[in-house]
Structure formats: structure tokens, C-alpha cells
Amino acid sequence: MVVIPKIRGFICTTAHPEGCSKHVADQISYVKSRGPIANGPKKVLVIGSSTGYGLSSRIAAAFGSQAATVGVFFERAGEADNTATAGWYNSAAFEREAKAAGLYARSFNGDAFSDAMKAEVIEAIKADLGQVDCVIYSLASPRRVHPKTGEIFKSALKPIGGTYSNKNLNTGTGAVTEITIETANEDEIAQTVAVMGGEDWEMWMDALQSAGVLAPGVQTFAYSYIGPTLTWPIYKNGTIGRAKEDLERAQRALDKKLAPLGGKAWVSVNKALVTQASSAIPVVPLYISLLYKIMKEAGSHEDCIEQMDRLFRERLSNPQPDEAGRIRLDDWEMAEAVQGLIAKRWDEVQTENLSEISDFAGYQTGFLKLFGFGLEGVDYEAETNPVVPVPSIP
Ligand code: NAD
Known about the structure:
Strand content: 15-25%
Bound molecules: nicotinamide-adenine-dinucleotide
Radius of gyration: 20 Å
Number of helices: 12
CATH topology of the domain at 7-162 and 185-275 and 303-330: Rossmann fold
Number of strands: 13
Oligomer: single chain
């Protein structure tokens, strides 16, 4: 079939196999161009490894520090008349490239929140690697089935303690409008914490530790976001921010549990970037469009792969934690010069000047890239087979 993008709201329902391969190949080339990562991890488990920050973490570990990687994700395989999800094609491409480079790579497709998935992954680590020395936790999900109670939790992206109104970008039309979001109730807060908070990260680490598959000195990382005050009502001080606070609670608990192994848990605060997860958050796409323009002009723009390369290459050996013990990869985003300009342009931005004062075009290009569209050298008019195997998945 000839695959074209089909965008519905903030999701693209098709993905291009060759385009996704090219996206992965470009990320691999970037990491290789930076040379080997000294003293990086050698056996890495990435939970949420198929797109966004998790995929780039897997690529940086494998191609920067020659790590064996185990990846866990929840994606859909392709069928004769239906494309796979982008994360499926990304994982297929990653495994092919890893194999060609002589690197171990094994992937698991299914619900990472379940006990069954944890048990399956632990068996694989025992059989193939013995232990892992690094665990990346990079899930972003709208729902979670609790493994012990069977309860289904749904996350909400809402402010807390009052209705919130601000500018918002319709990423389909490029219209800058006003959005008003009602305050979350206690149940919505609790459900968001249950989905995106730290409980499942702890469950993974507990299961891995009691199975004896964590190597001495193991490090584990979960990703967070803080951002500027203008997004605080919807992010840092909203339901998702509560979940991220819970992630930090889990980090402190894990630090204690990992101490006997000489291990360490980290929350890494990453930069705001276009991913499948962030495109669903109100207000944030407009902020990202303004941010990209300023950071690209300043020469400090990074995408997921540059961020994760920096994490493995620089912060693992020199974490430079902030006052709350977090790694800050959002340092360039939060620079005063950048945020000063954002604040000014936030007041000015409207539909008419959007393309002039923001990088909305870059936002759209970045969004399409997530699904394998708009990559250089890919023939988008050619017939392509949507059925592509992930080699390690039967
Ligand atoms: P993403 O949507 O690109 O990736 C999510 C990953 O989770 C995918 O691999 C997906 O398959 C996997 N996943 C979702 N539900 C699953 C399930 N039930 N079982 C197994 N796998 C499942 O998201 P992202 O933006 O890379 O986010 C990853 C983390 O980084 C999140 O914690 C997010 O809050 C954080 N973060 C994102 C940004 C940003 O701007 N995108 C900034 C800072 C921090």
C-alpha cells in the first residue's frame, strides 16, 4: 500500500515503515557521530522503548555504549491493509540495526503495568543477560489496569484548585484560541497519579531486585517535566504534576531499596519536545512552537536523541543534581534568556503572527516525523508492505 498520514486530532493513525526506519537510522547516526560513550551501561532495560524519550534512550545506550538492550512497549503490528503503529516500526528498525552491529536486542510487546509482563521480562534477563545495570522507565499512558486489584485508572490533564484559561494552539488548523479547562476533582487527581506516578516504577524495580537481576551499582531513571510558570497550572501544579511528584517520592524510596546494591534511582527532568504524549497536553504545543523557534535560533535546540545522548554521555558520570536531587536536562530550555523571550512572545502570539514568531512549521514537521513522514530520502509515493516483523517477537 501507499501510506499517507491520517491525522485525527493530536494523533496520526497511520505510520510509514521506511520513514520510521529512517528516523531510527538518523538517531543512530547522531549517536555514532559523537563517538563512543565512556563508562556507559552495558545491559539496559528500557520500559517504554518504542517512541519518544524511551526509544532515544535505547538508541543512545546501544549505539553509544554498545549496550545489550531489552525493550518493553505497547504497540500494534501491521496487517495487509493496515499500518502498524510507529513504535512497532521503530522497534523493528532498531532491532535490525542492533543485530547488524552485533548488539543483543530483545523486545516485548504488551502491558508493562501487568505482573505477567514483569515476569516474562525477568525470565528473559535471567536467561540471556543474567543481570541489568541500568533500568529506564519511560512510560506515557492514558490508562493503567492495576495488577493487584484489576481496577482501571484513567489519567486526566487538568488544573487543580481552579479553572484555568490560557492561549491554546489548534495544531490541525494553526489557529491560536483560548482554552478553558475545569479543575480536577480528587478522584481525577488520584487516578492520574495511579497511571503516571511512581507506583509501577517501584513495582518493576521491586520485582527485578527480588529476582536478583539487578547488577551491583545499578542505576534507574524515570523522566519528568517542570517547565515555565506559564504552563504550571496545566502541568507542574496540575494532575500530571501530582503524578510527577509521586515519581519523586518513588525515586527516594527506590534510592533506599537500592542502597544495599550500591545502586541509585534518578528522576531526570527533560526538555519539552513534540512526542505522541506531549501533543495531547493542552497549551503545551503552543509553548513548544515558541520554544523551538528561540532554541533553534540560539543553536541550543535538542530533540529526544540529543537529550538522551547528553544523559548517557555526560550526566551518568556527572549528574549535577538540583536541590531536589534531580538531573536537569531542561537546563537549556529554562535558561533566562530563552524564558524571557517566551514570556514576551506568549503575550504577543496570535493566529496572524504564529508562523512568524513561533516555529509552528517545525512543530508540524516534528509531529509528522514521529510517524515516519517527511524524512529525507524516503519515497512516499512507492508501494510499501505494512507487515514488518520485530525480529525478537514471535
Ligand atoms: P511517548 O508517547 O513517545 O512514549 C511512551 C512509551 O510508553 C511508548 O514506548 C509506548 O509504547 C509505551 N507505553 C505506553 N503504555 C504502555 C503500556 N501499558 N505498556 C507498555 N508500554 C507502554 O512519550 P514520551 O513523551 O517519550 O514520554 C516518556 C516519559 O518522558 C514520560 O514520563 C513523560 O512524562 C516524560 N517527559 C516527556 C516530555 C515531552 O515533552 N515529551 C518532557 C519531559 C518528560
